[in-house]
Automatic annotation (TrEMBL):
Name used for this protein in its record: Sugar ABC transporter permease
SUPFAM superfamilies: MetI-like
Stretches assigned to the ABC transmembrane type-1 domain: 96-314
Source organism: Paenibacillus gyeongsangnamensis
Pfam family, one: BPD_transp_1
Main location: membrane
PROSITE patterns: ABC_TM1 (PS50928)
Location within or outside the cell: Cell membrane
Amino acid sequence: MNHSTKLSHESNALPGRMNTVRTTRSISSHRNRKTLWCYAFITPQLIMFLVFTLYPIVMSYVYSFFRWNGYGPLEGFIGFDNFVETIYDPVFWNAFKNNFIFMVSLVAVQVPLALVLAIILNAHWLKGSAAYRAIYFLPVVTTTAVVGLVMRFIFGAYKGLVNEVLLKLGLIEKPVDWIGSIDTALLIVIIVGIWKSFGMNMIYWLAGLQSLPKEIYEAARVDGANTLQQFRYITVPLLMPVGSVILLLSAVNALHVFDLVKAMTEGGPAFATDMVDLYIYRYAFSSAGEARVGFASAAGIFYGIAVLVISLILGALVKMTGGKSTQGH
């Protein structure tokens, strides 16, 4: 009787076990199909990354050791000669200097002004702040090449908008070639660059401001702190980590300004607005004489290392600033 009872219980439990096994297999099969679909969607992006990003990066290191024009078989191994020529080329260092001046000027002017504007746009008393944000952010999403071409007409020597306005106001006696003059060309590029990317930093600052706890400001107002004191003792210390990241992003992005300069000045006049990206482009895709892809690759690697060093230095400063801010808080 006990043996038959045990068999009866096992026979009754068998369908339940079979259902559990079927359910487990169904879940496993569903997960496998889901995983396969994930790989299917990732594969095109992975192929694009390998073909158009990773492969060119790897091959640029290979090309840098050859005297190669980009056509035919890869031959003419010269070792580090391209790197040595880059180091001793004054035109390269002139472009590097212009890049550095552009970066420092953009960060020094744009970052604090964007903070001031973000504070104004974040104020509760401002009506239509969403519309103002869209207006200031519009240049960011505008094609840089189009902006450069439009600015060439605005700052044109003859019948340019700037010259027309200044002439009517009596501030100048004759048209000024803003872009064609060595003294003013880089300044105009910097001004346009600040205007073009101003809205991005404004959005970053706005995101940081809106993440600050309102209770702290309410407590400060109860204690009698005015607006300036709240900004100095609450807003600035709490925004230091965010501001450090904004500073880092602005500096790194400002080191690559190829499209704007190409459209506005093409590096002229007399290399006054030349940038390293444009310098590399001229040698890689030269329209006058034979292209030097190997030399352009070496210059690009050298500049990439310089940008990496600058980024690491700024990153260390960001970390130090964030740590001090956290300790102070």
